Structure formats: C-alpha cells, structure tokens
Amino acid sequence: MINKLSRMLCLASVALLGACASSGYNMPSALRGTGDLGVIIERASGSVQIVDSSQLTSIASVPGLGDLSHASLVYSRDGRYAYVFGRDGGLTKVDLLKGAIALRVMQAGNSIGGAISQDGRFVAAQNYTPGGVKIFKADTLELVADIPAAYGSEGKFSKVVGLADAPGNRFVWSLFDAGEIWTADVSDIKTPRVEKFKNIGREPYDGLITPDGRYYMAGLFGEDGMALLDMWHPEKGVRRILDGYGKGSEKLPVYKMPHLRGWAVAGRFAYVPAIGRHEVLVMDTESWKEVARVKVAGQPVFVIARPDGRQIWVNFAFPDNGQVQVIDVETRNVIKHLQPGKAVLHMEFTPRGEAVWISARDDNRVVVYDTSNFAVRKELPAQAPSGIFFTHRAARIGF
C-alpha cells in the first residue's frame, strides 16, 4: 500500500512539477535566467539534453518523450518551457529550470512540428495523421481548437507542413497533398477564422515566414518553384516565385527533403535550397526574383544565416551529409569546408552568432565551432543527436 501510494505521489509530481522525469540534473540552486539555455534532441533514446551555451555544458537529461525522430520544439515567451513535438504525436512541455517534464499529451498519430502564437497563449501542432492542426493552451496543454485539413469532395485529409506563427495571433501552414496554404486567426480561440488559398502549386513540402512576419513562402516538391503569400495583403492571393528554376536540367533523385525557416534571410536576400540540385538559390526579397546561385557540395538540407547575416551555413543530404560549407554573403563564394562528423542533421547559432552548434548523429556528438575562425571550441557527447534549439527563438517570429 505504501509503495502504491509512493508511486501515485511520484506520478502526481510528474504532472505538476516534472520532478520524476529528469536525470543527471546539475542546475545550481541559485536563481538564473534562461537566455543562454537550449535543448538537444536525442532521437534514438526519446530524451533531450538541456545545455548551457555560455558554459558549453550539458546540465540535465530528460527522458520519456517518446519517438523523437524528426522532433522539433518551440519556446514559451519567458524561455522557461520547451514544447516538444514528437513524431508519435506526443506534445511534451519540458521545464528547463527544473530539468523535467511538466506536462505531456498524445495529440495525434503522426506529428511533424508546431508553432506558438504571437501572445504566447497557444501552441499549435501540425499533423500528418490525422491531417490537420490542433491548438492547445500553452499553460495546461488543454485542446482548444481542432482544424482538420479536409480538402476536395472525397473527404480526404492532407498532411500539414510548414506551420509558422504570424503577427496578429495568426498561424499559417501548407497542405502537402492538397496544394493549398491556410491561415487561421486565433484572436478568438473559440471561433478561429480560417482562410484558404488553393492551387498554390504541387506538394508544398515546408514553409518559412520572413523575420518581419510579412511574407510566407512554401517550397514546392512537385514542381520547380515556390509559393509566396503577403500576410499584409492576403487579399492579393498567392503568387509564384522562382518558377522553373531547374528548367532544362536533368532532375536528380532527392535523398532528403530540405527544410525552410526564417533563418535563411540575410539582409535583403533570402538563401534557399534548390530541390535535388547542388545549389543554393539567392533571391532579392524586394523583387522576389532570383539574383544568383551558389554551387555547393551536395543537396542542401538546412541553409542558415548567421545572426549578423555575414555568413550562410549549409549542410547536406546523403551521401554528402558529413560536410558543412560556409558561404560569404559579400562574395557569394564558399569560404570554408568543414567535416564535423557522420550524418550532420542540424545547426544552431548562439543568439549573437559567435558560435554554432552542429549535431553529428552517427558519431553521437555535438560539435561547437567558433564562427570567426572555424576552430572547434567543444565537443559534447549525445545519443544520436538531431535538432538543437536555443531559447532566443522564444522572441523571434517564425521560430
């Protein structure tokens, strides 16, 4: 009876304080902020590491998050809580200061990421199965809205990709199977106002919103080009950009779907991966026309601007996924070729960009580079690390 009571108390603690789900927690007892903390996804073990980007150390390991293949997360406004979206449909709220799970719900059968509203009140999850978007209260994870991605006349549901937050307490996302972009204003969460844009192009695979929140772009997998929506003037509809950028060239097999986020914008130029090509495309964000192409080592996956916009870092799909290249934005030349380890999956800059953390999944490590001289500052062990996410994302649109 006593043991049973103890277990019940422990489970209650998980729900309220998350104290039972942490291990190896080294956080000092003194008060501290969260601005230099971050999370590393350990996909194989269903756990996350909480790290300190100032001290270059791991301060806690939190297990019990389920299937974390292709997991991503967003942060609460204060940077204390990470909302982790698992591939198995789990949505887990992790307390970075306590190194523990605060809340966890199973919300879908197959989830692919999410976003948090401008006011921080709502967390939205984008789902493959069942296709659609579900919205939860950020404090309690109570489901408050369910927007199925139904399309056509046959009762089909589309996979949802490219979900992003937008100014005005809106969310915007793409429907892979339907070829549509939808927006939802959640200012009144009881009656979200959904607007649909159809025939935007075949198979949008991901989306990004510009750092100012004005433009939403969906990359198209089914054809060469991208779809652009002006969030200031949605009444103008969606326009095509980069139309036919691969015209006249032989298509190569695509080994990994590239990713898009607002991090690819540096100054007035956007740097985006060319699907199936060994190129990074450069667009002028005033005219939305292509202005240059940069030859790179393989098929780009992540194309990320250093926070000051001086460099663009690129990693690649198999078989070139052990490499990272750095592009100088002034010359648009590759100025550095790095080999951080086997199966590089993600890169994350510190808030002001003096360092970048890179996950090498098959070497079970995260490598920290100095971005001024490309020297290795630290290597941290991690179990099959994938995504790395620092808390400064909490204050940025589209993250």
UniProtKB/TrEMBL annotation:
InterPro entries: Cyt_cd1_C_sf (IPR003143), Haem_d1_sf (IPR011048), Host-pathogen_enzymatic-act (IPR051200). This is Protein nirF. The keyword Coiled coil does not apply. Residues 1-21 form the signal peptide. Keywords: Signal. Pfam families: Cytochrom_D1. The lineage of its organism: Bacteria, Pseudomonadati, Pseudomonadota, Betaproteobacteria, Burkholderiales. The keyword Signal applies. Transmembrane segments: none annotated.
